[in-house]
Amino acid sequence: MGGYPVVTWNSYSQAQRRLPPKYRLAKDLPHELQDRVNALPQSYRNSHQATVLFEAMIDEAMDDELGAPPISIINEVTDEGAPLWEFVYTNQMWYGEGVPAPDIKNLKSCGCVGRCDPKSKTCGCAKRQRHHLKRYIENNTIPKTWNGVPFLYDNKGSLQFFGMPIFECNDFCGCDEDCPNRVVQRGRRYAVNIKRTETKGWGVFNGPKKIPEGSFIGIYAGELLTVEESDHRGTLYNKFGRTYLFDIDFHYMELTPFLQNHSCDPNCEINPCYINEANIEKPLLTVFTKREVEPFEELSFSYMGCIDDETISKAKNAKKSNDAVYAECHCGSRNCLGVLFS
């Protein structure tokens, strides 16, 4: 046109796919602030200044959740000013050595204009989600009468079905930011606080308002590891009686340690979610409420996965183990198994 090339969304999107994917490397994890604070006397780490500094660190890490309510540090139990300065608070995935970069070349995207329609015959994201939910729809786990099929969110952004992979629209899609299939990427909407408990260390608690069932709480983020590296670290962590490793089948994650405590009767559940990643082996671990959460109630999920007969059997055997990674459970639920990963 007039001697100049016409740029369309499709041509721009295809050009972006040819660029190297943007991602963070674990070797670049910042630690200067943690090192400086840990070099200071315990009296400082127990001070109000340390609390304010920790809250500021969290706020800075939430640069991809600009509309999310701030997170406060609350301690009415001990003299600690903040949780241990051992980890970097992050909402991002950090790729360890040997973990492949995000696959964006094979990423399926839609060319929808405006908001995606789950009934659309041409929406690429609807087709991808339907492909991965086919068996759930066929066995009626997802009723054929559900108006949102194949998307898993309702019109308010609440997750309707748990234990199934979520495929959201991505950066290469043509739909708007308020598309109903963009929930995780829009960030947390409800206020939460990090609070010291009497028997379980630090935990995450709801703010002053109820959180509806199916609400997005956050991404269980951290360092993505190869199986070999996770085995090496797991051996060391077992000896010291702590672990933040999470098995996602093909890779492992080392996680921010104080996001949520365990409960044998949890109010949250982790669901795999894919946004800017075509590799099915590398989902985001997203946390959603599985029931309505009362004001100031602690947010929790099961470290043992689904609590079934097999889990109960494993818990009984764990009580007999001398492995330091197992600890007594203090969740206080009526169906408490008495043991968890420490």
So what's the oligomer here? single chain
Question: Helix content range of the residues, please?
Answer: 10-25%
Taking the alpha carbons of the first and last residues, their distance comes to 64 Å
The proportion of residues in beta strands is 15-25%
The biggest beta sheet is recorded as: 5 strands, mixed
What class would the helix/strand composition place it in?
alpha/beta
**Morphology call:** globular
Which spans of ≥5 residues are poorly predicted at pLDDT below 50? 249-255
How are the strands ordered across the major sheet? 1-3-8-10-9
What Rg do the Cα atoms give? 21 Å
Report the count of strand segments: 16
Succession of helices and strands: HEHHHEEHEEEEEHEEEEEEHEE
Q: What is the average per-residue confidence, as pLDDT, rounded to a whole number?
A: 85
What does the model show?
- This protein has 342 residues and is α/β, with parallel strands linked by helices.
- The chain contains seven helices and 16 strands.
- The strands form four sheets. A five-stranded mixed sheet has the order 1-3-8-10-9. Strands 2-5-6-14-11 form a five-stranded mixed sheet. A four-stranded mixed sheet has the order 4-12-13-7.
- A hairpin with a 4-residue loop joins strand 9 and strand 10 (252-255).
- The chain is globular and about 65 Å long.
